[in-house]
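Problem 3 from the worked examples.
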Amino acid sequence: MIKLISFKNCPFVQRVMGALIMKNIPFEIEYIELSNKPQWFLDIAPNGQVPVLITEDKTVLFESDAIVEYLDDKYAPIEQLSAEQKALERAWSYQASKHYMPQCGTMGSKDQQTFETRLANLAKAFAKAENKLGGSAFFKGDYISNVDIAWLPLLHRAAVIHSCSGFDMLAGFPKVQKWQAALIESGLTDKTVPTDFVQTFSNFYLKNTYLASLMDGTEAVASSNGYASSSCCG
């Protein structure tokens, strides 16, 4: 069986899990501690980052873009696409994945000025999606595609921030908000993160950050390992 090596808050891993789940590929997952990476993991991961996927023939794959493309090549694709359509799909997926870390940096901002500066840059990605989206529930129609899976981590994290702090990172982008709601309603968000995701996520992004200052202080945040740096996944 395929094995996925992860750490609980990694958006890149969530994307890979989304692909595995949508393709109905059986897999097992093992979580490691970001602050204490085991030696066996460092021995097999060329860049020391998650996700790492160990295939059924024990080949170790790394880098989320490469892993997702492998899953498309190895298993039945979600939809049949021409070479041009596949290239466009990958380009729009890349528009999402290259903004995972900028979103993490925005959410982790310690003061309002830094937060607003970073958010303005992040908003450019949402603006591109807003201009591309039509009237359907998902990016390409009424079904979840690889593009939706790629954008899932960005939209899911924005939803958690909105729910916990009241701040909507998608304000001003009604089509993206509708898209976000459809993805969450589909149930895919909950299937692609651990059961304690909101707690571990909040423990890092909603403590000692600008977003934390927007909260009323009544939310209980569990102690756990959080998402720490750009060196953790890719």
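Problem 4, a separate protein:
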Amino acid sequence: MDLFSQTWAALRKAVAELPDKDFEKPSGCAGWLVRDLVCHLVIDAQDVLITLVTPADTEPTADAVTYWHVADEAPTGDDPLDALIVRLAAAYEEPHLLRFHLDDVGSAAGRAAELADPAALVSTQDMVLTVGDYLGAYVLEWTLHHLDLIAHLPDAPAPPSAGPARSRALLEQIAGAAFPASFTDTDALLVGTGRRPPTDAERAELGELDKKLPLILG
């Protein structure tokens, strides 16, 4: 719960401090500008709010690891929701409007998470999870998107170190194997999710795990 709040607050702060010109730069999400990514974060915040007020009365069917499914192919941008986000982001026109909306909805999502009972059961995407597991899954979401945000912005702040560390552990559970100890947490996340290809030296260290990569999470 605390790590959800920490990583989400850090990501929102990073967006709030971006100069207007940076919203037109590419993000780490293929085909998305920074403004498109920020618009996606608004949708993410809405999803968190909706899920936290969608109680379930059955046993959990997923946890912070099995919440994620691994797709066969990377997104192409042709998905209707992906295309909608690009159009919606462009409709904001002024970066300050997008910043305001993320701060408004994002702050509400953060407060709702802090007030939620971690043992309560919620439903989302045909799954039932405890609130603790649901918010735990989102630590990976926030961390990956923080890395996406700063992919081409060298002066922007990195995510807090606890976020990549926990996210790496989740990704290793999803993969069913550990990344080499020589990989930093950030490198494990970027290589593991296909955000950058491994170097020849990294591929040699990955061994059999290389055959499972990249893990396209959805």
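Solution to problem 4. Residues 52 and 86 are 26 Å apart (CA to CA). The beta strands are 70-71, 121-124, 127-130, 216-217.
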